[in-house]
Specification:
heterodimer; A: 459 residues; alpha/beta; Rossmann fold; 2 domains; seven-stranded mixed sheet; five-stranded parallel sheet; 16 strands; B: 348 residues; mainly alpha; globular
C-alpha cells in the first residue's frame, strides 16, 4: 500500500514535470519589435499541390557560370542553370502562398529573422502573396523538417522555403517527395552544377549571398578597434560555409591590421571557438554566452559573432557596464546592433528580399528554372534594401576616425580589392591559392580549413 | 455479479469524466491565451488527418511509440519503473547506426544490412536495460536512479559520436551524422515515407506483449512479482532473475524503437533521436493503467496530437506544446479520478 502511494506520487511528479516542460517557452528568443503579423489563417481545405503548369521547355545544359551584372572581383556571382528543368511551377499568375521552415525563431534578431523579413519583403512587393511559417523546426520532437513542410502544404503553401543549411537533407527528401512544389533552399549548394555536392534536383532553387565581403568589413572594423590585438570569433558549427566566413573575417582583419594600421601580422590573434550549432541548445552546444565571456575575460576586446543570435553583443554590453572596454559585431540581421548599440561596431547582414522577389516572381510566372545563385553586394546601392544580397551597417560604437577608415576600405572593396587573392595559406601550412591568383568560387565556397594565422578547430 | 458490473460502469464513468475535465482545462487554457478553441481543435485534427501526407506522418511516428509503450508494459508488470527507457532507445539508435555505417560499403545486400542493423539496435537497447537491472540487483541502485544516470550517459555518448568519430567529413554540427543512402532506408511506400515493415513490427510488438503478459507462464510470474514481490519470492519465483528478464525484454523493444527512428524516420543519428518517446510511453502506460489492449489506440491518439499540433503555430500562432499540455492533463486527471473513485467507493 505504502509502495503504491510512492508510485502514485512519483507518477504525479512525472506528469507535473511534463506539464512544466510543455508550458515552458519553446526557445529563447529575443522579442523584436519589427515583426508584423504575417497572414490570416489560410483556408485549411486548400489542395496540397500547386496546379501544375504546362511543361517548361528543357534547356540545354549550360555549363558555365553566367555572370549577372556584377562590377567586381571574386567570389563572382555564379548562376548555373541545371540541365533539366522542372516541368512544374504554379501556373502563371496563380496566387502564391509561401511556406517557410525556419531553423530558429522568426524574431531572433539574426539569421532566421533576416530570411523571414526577406519573405515579408516579397509579400509587400507581390500583393496577394501569403506567407506562413514554422519556426524552431527542430523543436518538434518526432516530426522531421520535411514533415513540417508537408504541414505547410496542408495549409495551402505552394512554394516551400527552407532557411538553413541544417535542412540540407530534409529539403532533398521533401523535394523528391513533392516534385510539383518549387523548393527554395537558402544557403544550399545541391543545385550548383560546378559544386561538390551537385544533386540536380529539378524543383529546387539554391540562394546564397556573398557574405564574404561583409565579413571582411567586419574583420577590418574589429582590427581597427582592438587595443589588445586579440579578436575572438564566436563560431557556430563547423562546415565549409562557416570556415569561409570566419576566414573572410580574418582576411579583413589581417588586411586592415597590416596594410592600413601598418602593424605586425604576428601581433594580431584571431581565435575561433565553435559552439556546435547555429544557436544555443542547452546541454548540446557550448553556451555562446559563456564563450563570449571567456573571450572577453582572456584579453579579446572585440568578438565577431558567426552565430544566428546576439549573445556576443549582449555580453559585450554587460562587460562594458562592468567597466571593461569591449565590443562586438553581430551577424545576419540589419538591425542587430539595436540590441546593444553602445558596443556594436556594425553588422554584416543578409538582404534576402531582392533575390527572393526575383525567384518567387519567376515561380508565379512559370518561368523559373532550378538553379544555384550566389549573389553579390550591390556596391552602387550599398545598404539599399531594394538592391544587393548583403550589406554592412556600421554601428554607433565605431569611432569617427575608424568609420572613415572603414568607409575607405569598403570603397576599395567596391573598386575591386579582392582579399581572396593568393597567397592564401591554410592552417596546416598548405598553400591553397598561389600568389597573385584569385581564388575560384569553388575554392572559396568549399574552403577545407581555416587559414594560417587563425587558431581554432578546422573540422 | 451485478455489483461487479455496476462498479465497472462507475469506473468508465470516472474515466470519461477525467477526459472531460482534461479537455475543459485545455480549452480554458486556449481561451486564456486568446485562441478560438473550436478552431484550435479543428486544426489539430486536420493536422493529423487532413491529408494523406499527414496521415502517413502520424503512422510513421506511431510505430516507435507503440513499440516503446509495449515494452514498458513488461517492466511495469514486474512493478518496475524503467525510466532508463530513453537511454535504451538511444543505445538502440547508436547500435543501428553503427551497423549501417560499418556495412554501408560492404558487399552485403541492403536488406541484410537493414535486418542486421535492426537486430543490433535491439541488442543495444537490451544491453543498456540490463545495466539498469544489474545496478538494481547487484548494486542496490533503485532502477529510477540507475535509469536516469544511464539516460544521461547515453545522451552524452550520442553527442560525442555526432561531434566526434561519426561526424560528417569536414563538418562538426548538431545536425547529426551523414544521411544514409536510400537503399539503407527501411522500404517505404513511395513518397509517403510510411513503411509497412515498421507498421507491421509495431503491431507485432504489441500483440506479442499482449499474449505474453496474458497467457504465458513467465508473464504471469512477472505479474505476481509486480503485485507483491515478497509473496512471489515465498512462492518460489526467482524474483531478481525475472526482474532482470523484464528489463531485458523492455530494452529489446526500446532498442527496436531506436532502430526504427534511424532506419525509418531520420535516416541518420541525431542528438534527439528518441523524440522523447520513452517518456511519452511512460505517460501512456500510466494513462491506460498498464493494460495492453489500450496501447495501440492511445499511442495512435498521442502521436496524432503530436503531429496535428504542428498546425497550431501555423494557423493560430499558438505554441504547439499545447498538445503536450493536453497529453499531460489527460494522464493527470485520469490518475486523479482513479484516486477519487477509490476514496468514494471505499466509503460507500
Amino acid at each position: 500500500m505504502n509502495k503504491n502511494l510512492l508510485w502514485r506520487s512519483f507518477a504525479m511528479l512525472i506528469v507535473a514535470t511534463f506539464l512544466v516542460t510543455a508550458c515552458a517557452p519553446a526557445a529563447t528568443s529575443t522579442p523584436a519589435p519589427t515583426v508584423a503579423p504575417t497572414s490570416a489563417p489560410a483556408p485549411t481545405t486548400a489542395p496540397t499541390t500547386a496546379p501544375t503548369s504546362a511543361a517548361a521547355p528543357t534547356t540545354a545544359p549550360t555549363s558555365g557560370a553566367a555572370p549577372t551584372a556584377a562590377p567586381t572581383a571574386a567570389p563572382t556571382p555564379t548562376v548555373a542553370v541545371a540541365p533539366t528543368v522542372a516541368a512544374t511551377g504554379a501556373a502563371s499568375g496563380t496566387p502564391i502562398t509561401i511556406g517557410e521552415i525556419l531553423v530558429g525563431p522568426h524574431n531572433d534578431t539574426g539569421w532566421s529573422q533576416a530570411t523571414y523579413e526577406g519573405l515579408q519583403y516579397v509579400q509587400s512587393k507581390l500583393p496577394g502573396t501569403k506567407l506562413i511559417y514554422i519556426d524552431n523546426a527542430f523543436n518538434y520532437q518526432g516530426t522531421t523538417p520535411a514533415q513540417l513542410a508537408e504541414q505547410l502544404l496542408a495549409q495551402g503553401a505552394n512554394v516551400i522555403v527552407f532557411n538553413s543549411d541544417s535542412f540540407m537533407d530534409d529539403s532533398n527528401t521533401f523535394a523528391a517527395a513533392h516534385p510539383t512544389i518549387p523548393v527554395i533552399m537558402l544557403s544550399g549548394d545541391q543545385n550548383w552544377a560546378e559544386g561538390q555536392d551537385y544533386k540536380n534536383i529539378p524543383n529546387m532553387i539554391d540562394i546564397m549571398g556573398q557574405m564574404e565581403y561583409m565579413k571582411e568589413i567586419a574583420g577590418c572594423a574589429a582590427a581597427l578597434t582592438t587595443q589588445t590585438g586579440k579578436i575572438g570569433f564566436l563560431g557556430p558549427l563547423i562546415n565549409p560555409e562557416t570556415r569561409r566566413l570566419a576566414s573572410s573575417a580574418f582576411l579583413g582583419a589581417e588586411y586592415c591590421w597590416t596594410k592600413v594600421l601598418n602593424k605586425n601580422a604576428s601581433d594580431l590573434s584571431f581565435d575561433v571557438t565553435w559552439i556546435g550549432n547555429w544557436f544555443n541548445v542547452p546541454g548540446q552546444t557550448l553556451d555562446p554566452t559563456q564563450v563570449a565571456d571567456q573571450f572577453f575575460n582572456s584579453g579579446h576586446d572585440v568578438v565577431i559573432s558567426g552565430i544566428d543570435t546576439t549573445e556576443a553583443l549582449q555580453e559585450a554590453k554587460k562587460m562594458t557596464d562592468n567597466g571593461m572596454k569591449v565590443f562586438a559585431i553581430p551577424y545576419d540581421y540589419h538591425a542587430a546592433c539595436d540590441v546593444a548599440p553602445s558596443v556594436c561596431l556594425g553588422v554584416p547582414y543578409f538582404n534576402w528580399g531582392p533575390a527572393l522577389l526575383t525567384n518567387i516572381k519567376a515561380i508565379q510566372d512559370g518561368t523559373w528554372k532550378p538553379h544555384f545563385e550566389w549573389n553579390p553586394p550591390d556596391w552602387a546601392h550599398f545598404n539599399n534594401p531594394d538592391y544587393g544580397a548583403v550589406g554592412f551597417n556600421e554601428g554607433p560604437a565605431l569611432t569617427a576616425a575608424n568609420k572613415a577608415t572603414l568607409d575607405k576600405f569598403i570603397s576599395d572593396l567596391a573598386g575591386g580589392l579582392d582579399l581572396w587573392t593568393g597567397p592564401i595559406t591554410l592552417q596546416d601550412g598548405t598553400v591553397y591559392v598561389q600568389a597573385g591568383v584569385a581564388a575560384t568560387p569553388q575554392q572559396i565556397w568549399y574552403l577545407p580549413q581555416l587559414l594560417k594565422g587563425m587558431t581554432g578547430a578546422s573540422k | 455479479m451485478l455489483q461487479k458490473q455496476t462498479s465497472r460502469w462507475v469506473n468508465l464513468g470516472f474515466q470519461f469524466l477525467a477526459i472531460l475535465v482534461a479537455l475543459a482545462f485545455t480549452t480554458l487554457l486556449l481561451v486564456l491565451s486568446g485562441a478560438p478553441p473550436i478552431q484550435a481543435y479543428k486544426e489539430l485534427i486536420l493536422g493529423a488527418f487532413g491529408s494523406i501526407d499527414n496521415v502517413s506522418n502520424v503512422l510513421i511516428a506511431w510505430a516507435p511509440l507503440l513499440i516503446t509503450t509495449a515494452g514498458l508494459l513488461v517492466t511495469f508488470a514486474a512493478g518496475l519503473w524503467n525510466i532508463g527507457i530513453e537511454g535504451q532507445i538511444t543505445l538502440g539508435a547508436i547500435f543501428t547506426t553503427w551497423v549501417l555505417r560499418s556495412f554501408e560499403n560492404s558487399s552485403l545486400s541492403p536488406t541484410m544490412i537493414i535486418i542486421l542493423s535492426i537486430v543490433a539496435g535491439m541488442f543495444g537497447g537490451m544491453l543498456w536495460a540490463s545495466l539498469v537491472g544489474v545496478l538494481k540487483t547487484f548494486g542496490g541502485v533503485n532502477e529510477i536512479f540507475g535509469g536516469l544516470g544511464l539516460n544521461f550517459i547515453a545522451s552524452t555518448l550520442v553527442l560525442y559520436l555526432i561531434y566526434g568519430p561519426w561526424r560528417r567529413p569536414g563538418v562538426a554540427s548538431l545536425s547529426g551524422t551523414e544521411i544514409f543512402p536510400n537503399r539503407l532506408w527501411l522500404p517505404s511506400i513511395s513518397n509517403l515515407g510510411i513503411s509497412p515493415w515498421a507498421f507491421a513490427l509495431g503491431i507485432l510488438g504489441i500483440l506479442i506483449i499482449y499474449f505474453f503478459l496474458r497467457g504465458t507462464y513467465i508473464g504471469l510470474k512477472l505479474k505476481a512479482i509486480g503485485k507483491n514481490i515478497r509473496s512471489a519470492h515465498t512462492l518460489g519465483i526467482p524474483t531478481w532473475q525475472y526482474m532482470m528478464l523484464s528489463f531485458m525484454i523492455c530494452g529489446l523493444f526500446a532498442g527496436l524503437t531506436g532502430a526504427l527512428q534511424v532506419t525509418n524516420v531520420y535516416h541518420r543519428l541525431l542528438p534527439y533521436i528518441t523524440s522523447g518517446y520513452g517518456f511519452l510511453g511512460l505517460l501512456v502506460a500510466m494513462l491506460i493503467n498498464y493494460q495492453a489492449i489500450w496501447v495501440a489506440p492511445i499511442t495512435l491518439f498521442y502521436v496524432a496530437l503530436n503531429v496535428g499540433s504542428v498546425q497550431l503555430p501555423i494557423a493560430l500562432k499558438l505554441d504547439s506544446n499545447l498538445s503536450g499540455v493536453l497529453q499531460g492533463f489527460l494522464v493527470l486527471f485520469v490518475l486523479l479520478m482513479e484516486g477519487v473513485r477509490q476514496k468514494l467507493t471505499r466509503k460507500v
